[in-house]
Amino acid sequence: MVRHRIVKQRINKEAWELKKFTANQLLRKLNSYPNMDGKNRTNLQLTVHRLANFLKANPNIKYVPNEENIKHAGMWEWVGE
Description:
Blueprint: H1 2-18, E1 20-21, H2 23-31, H3 48-57, E2 61-64, E3 75-78
């Protein structure tokens, strides 16, 4: 459970900074976090599917469908405080 809490905190932090983003943009930022030494990536790696599930469950983030082209992924938007 602690791992989920850390991931949720990082998602909230990065989503607040980006304001409007796609899942792939957020995924790249989350998977490039440095480890405790500040050198390599952390072991908390996410997949797009797991990230989408975290985003759907987060009340501070809402899905904005892409109306221009159905093939591309929709945007997510920060609506929290």
